[in-house]
Every structure is written in structure tokens, then in C-alpha cells.
Amino acid sequence: MSAEPQPVSSAPAGSPPVTDAGAPPPADPRYGEEYFHGRGTERSMQAPFDRMHFDRFCAKLAAAVPIDPRWSVLDLGCAVGYLTYHFAERCAHATGVDHAEPALAFARKTYARPNVDFVHSNILAFQPTRRYDLILFVSLYEHLTREEQDRLFERMKGWLTPGGVLATHTITAHSWIGRRRTREKNLGTLDFSGDPTHTCAFTLAELEAHIASHGYVLRGEYRRYGSFVLRGTRLEKLFRWLRIPDRWRHELVLEVLAVHGLA
Q1: Domain residue limits, the chain
Q2: Partners of 134 in the β-ladder
Q3: Who contacts 93 (Cβ-Cβ below 8 Å, separation ≥6)?
Q4: What CATH class has 29-262?
Q5: Are 60 and 70 in contact (CB under 8 A)?
Q6: 3-state secondary structure the chain
Q7: Fewer CB within 10 Å of terminal CB in the chain, N or C?
Q8: From first to last of its 263 residues, what are the pLDDT tens digits of the chain?
Q9: CB 56 within 8 A of CB 222
Q10: Tell me, what's the pLDDT at 52?
Q11: Cα–chain center distance at 153
């Protein structure tokens, strides 16, 4: 894989004529400054938990996919930019895209680097001018409708370099433990995260099937079971040794990090 910019195929018919340097999207009141300043959450601009969470994510991702320093990385829904910055330290170039200007203003101030671009764009209208070796689709799935997910997964296939990697991360709120935790927290939101902007929830089996339906092949997966951190293959080996059926294991998953390539 190479980090050299490559031409990107033209957008499908009906796609908005917007490039990564296009007109900024209208403000979405759901993602104002108050949302990104939420204390004690993954989206906090103060970000002590944010850094711990994403450092763990990055370590697992690095274990699944050896990161090439020549890579070009796209971080969709980059929010305050910490993950974009993390990969920019390890790769040739990183682009973070988000439609929330308060988050991008913080990102540009806090995580500026010569090899980082922060782009103000709706991810559904974003038109890249290069291809990427790694696309990060992190904590974004649950913010989109199924139709929006379908559109993005089809479009991202044209954004990857040959042999490129798509990394997804989300919670699985429709598992048995996910539904139970949502009831226990009683936050009045769709899932146990308490995030009022989440519009979609699913089980791990539904998630895997949906991504596969768009032609992506699973290369590696790390699951979080209940209160356990993402332990990857160690816990999986124990479950297999105990001969616990996969469908039962799915019901205990709260969070999943998956790495995909194209068929």
C-alpha cells in the first residue's frame, strides 16, 4: 500500500457536488459546543477518558493491522481530532472530517500538525481528492440511519487504495447485555451510552452481516464482553474451549472493533 495520492473515481449519480474543500454544511444543533463539552464522556474536550479509550483502541488496531508509516489515513466523524492526531504521528498523512464546527475548532487548535488536515464537511457529502490506505469509521455507525450507512459503505470502497483497510468501532446495544444495561441505566436514550444523537442499534451478528453485504471481508475483530475491556483473542479462546456457541457469545458483546478489507 502506498500513501501517494491517487485519483478518485467520480461520485455516483445524484451525489451532492461537494468536495473536501466545498462549502461548509449547515450547523446541526444536536452537535453544538455543549455536546462536545460533555464531562465524563468519550466526546469530552477535556478528554482524559477519551484518550484512555482511544489509546486502547489504537493498540488493538495496531495489533490487528501493522501500520505502515507511508500510509494516508481518513478519520470520518473525527470530532475533536484526537484519533486523527494519533494516527498522524504514525503515518504520512491524516485527514479528519466532521460537520461540527465547535469540535473542529478545538481539533485545529489542539491537534494541529503539518501532516494533518481537518475538513469541515458532512461525511455523506464528502468527496476526497486522494485514496486512503486506512479509513477509520469509529463511534460513527450508531449516529447514522441504515440508508446513510449503506451509502457510505458503498462510497468508501472507492476511497480505499488497493489492499486498503477499513476499521470500524461501535457498541452493540441490541445484544442481551446491551439491552439489559440500557434498562438499568434508564437514561431515556436508544442505548446505554446516554447519547441522545444515536439513531441506530444492532447486535454483533447484524453488524457483521451488514458490513459483509457491501463486499467487505473481516480480517480481525476485538470484542468487549460486559465489564471486560477489549481482550481480543484471549477471551475468545476461552469461550471456544468452553464450547460456548457463537450466537450466545454475541449476546454478551457490548463493544466491537473490526478490521476489514475488500473482497
Answers
A1: 29-262
A2: 73, 165
A3: 3, 72, 73, 115, 116, 117
A4: alpha beta
A5: no
A6: CCCCCCCCCCCCCCCCCCCCCCCCCCCCHHHCHHHHCCCCCCCCCCCHHHHHHHHHHHHHHHHHCCCCCCCEEEEECCCCCHHHHHHHCCCCEEEEEECCHHHHHHHHHHCCCCCEEEEECCCCCCCCCCCEEEEEEECCHHHCCHHHHHHHHHHHHCCEEEEEEEEEEEECCCCHHHHHHHHHHCCCCCCCCCCCCCCCCCCHHHHHHHHHCCCEEEEEEEEEECCCCCCCHHHHHHHHHCCCCHHHHHCCEEEEEEEEEEC
A7: C
A8: 444 433 343 333 333 333 444 555 655 656 555 556 553 334 444 444 455 666 776 777 777 777 899 999 999 998 888 889 989 999 999 999 998 888 888 889 888 999 999 999 989 999 998 999 999 998 888 888 889 999 999 999 999 999 999 999 888 888 888 888 888 888 777 877 777 778 888 888 889 999 999 999 998 888 877 655 444 556 677 777 788 787 887 888 888 888 899 98
A9: no
A10: 60
A11: 12
- The torsion of the CA quartet 261, 115, 80, 132, rounded to 10 degrees, works out to -20
- For residue 134, the one-letter residue type is L
Three cell numbers, residue 79: 470530532
Residue 105 has a CB neighbour count (10 Å cut-off) of 15
- C-alpha 175/C-alpha 252 separation (Å) is 6
Give the number of residues written for the chain.
263
What is the residue whose three cell numbers read 500538525? 113
